Amino acid sequence: VQLVESGGGLVQPGGSLRLSCAASGFPFSRYAMSWYRQAPGSERELVAKITSSGGTTNYADSMKGRITISRDNAKNTVYLQMNSLKPEDTAVYYCFAGATGSPNSYWGQGTQVTVSS
Hints:
The protein is mostly beta strands. It is built from no helices and eleven strands.
């Protein structure tokens, strides 16, 4: 099983980034997918979630209105479009497959997002 995130980097406040997570080794189209983030000294928090079909999405209040989660089941990839980024969005962003606590759930290695002028 692999979840490989990409698209992180340094961006100025107000800027945008699109994160991608390429999945392999499990039946991607059957899995709900999520993005989490963890800032230094903070717990990992859920940012966005999308159901297996892509029909339902949920967002953290802290980023609602500024982010969009989407997926392409043909490409085994989930995306996180982030706009109007703020310094407090600085964190490592992780891709997660499955349900919390399930033995059949998987984490990516994370991608750093830094919002700074």
